[in-house]
Every structure is written in structure tokens, then in C-alpha cells.
TrEMBL record:
The organism of origin for this protein: Sphingomonas guangdongensis
NCBIfam families found in the cross-reference section: ygfZ_signature
Organism ancestry: Bacteria, Pseudomonadati, Pseudomonadota, Alphaproteobacteria, Sphingomonadales
Keyword Disulfide bond belongs to the record: no
This protein's name: Aminomethyltransferase folate-binding domain-containing protein
InterPro entries: TrmE/GcvT-like (IPR027266), YgfZ/GCV_T_CS (IPR017703), YgfZ/GcvT (IPR045179)
Keywords: Transit peptide
Amino acid sequence: MSDTSSATLLADRAVLRVAGDDPRGFLMGLVTQDSAIAPDAPRWSGLLTPQGKALFDFILWDGGDGSLLIDCEAAQAEALARRLSLYRLRRAITIEPTELRVHWSPEPGWGVADPRLADLGYRWLGDATGAPATGWLETRLRYGVAEGVAELGQDQTLWLECNARELGGVSFTKGCYVGQENTARMHHRMKVNRRLVVARIGEDDRARVRYPELGLMVTHRRVEALGDALRPRWLIDALAEDALAAGA
């Protein structure tokens, strides 16, 4: 975690702290990634419906004091905390906002590589000092990475259709979590029929979000009808692997 006065602040992100009675064990049974987070090795993860559809996505960080930190959408932080709190039952777990903020740079020198894709640049947690970062949205979209409730859809998109397998958002060895059964079944059958992709803006009734200033949109398409979707290397490799498995 570091402080900086550069233009690195991701102003639309917030940080929650999960602490108390074994927060790692608490989250292990809920979220899609292994919560055994090492220092400076964050992991992208999701909280799903029992049917395996995305509700929230976030990045998990080691809190350094036995706690875990959740790097999430600021607009969804309160809703995410409420949802996680439903699972506490009588357990002594606290889920609270912090003063920490998320920072990003396209160049090395600060933080660690984005856990989804190294090409996305570097992020770290620090105070709110500094100006808002420029270029993050375009960088993320140019590499075909969707995030957040607006793009992923809440209770609309299966987690593997959010490209979670390719972008490190799911562990297939950690054991049970909410939505695990359907997610694991899709993985083992290599059955991902649709994907969230980034494409040039155009007529598309499955578009989730449009970004006119960048000429891009996030849309949900069948894999055999991706059309003019951007095809970063990770997506090319995933489609080739799926085609190989289908032909085996």
C-alpha cells in the first residue's frame, strides 16, 4: 500500500474491510476465488447467485492484520456489504468501509500487476491523495475486460460468461461457494456459449453499456457470433481452446 500525489486515483472504487472471526474462512465459502490471499498478490473474485450468475465483482487484498480488503465499485460498496452480512449469522465478522482508496498506473513503479491481466497495468491501495487517473477505462476496454454491475449485469450473466476462467476470477480447487455447482459444471463441460465482449458501438440489442467517447460498448454475444468484437490475445486463446475441446 502506498500514497502518491500523481493522477492515479480510481475515484469510482472503494475499499471494504472484512475482519473478526476468521474472515478468510468466512469468504472462502462465499466467493469464487480462494481467500488465502498473499501480500501483494490480490485476486479478482465474484459473489454469485446460487445459479452461478454474477451479483458483484471485486478484487481481494490481504489486509496485513488478519483482515481482508475488498476493492469494489464505490456505488455498490454498501449493497455488497449488506449482501455479505446476510451470511454472517451469529459469526463475529465485521464488514465496514475504510478510508483507503484504489490507485492505478499503466506503468510499473507503483503497486502490483492487475490480477486479471498484466496488460491492464498496476494498482495499489492508499489514501485519497491525488487527482483522478486518466486512461483507465480505455485501457480496460481495449483489452476486452468487463467489470461492475452495469457491464456484468446483476443476476443476468453466468460467471464464466464474464470471462472469469480466463481472467483469474475463479478457483476450481477451493471447494464450495455460492453458485459453485453450475460454475464447475460449465467449466468441466467446456460449455461457455456466450461471452461478455467489447465491440465498436453499433446496433446491438444485447449491449450492456455504451461509451460514445471511446466508440466502444460492452455486449453479451454468442461465441459463434462475436462479429466485430475486440479480440485480445487472451480471448483468442480461450476461443481456440474451447473449439479444440468441442472437437475432441
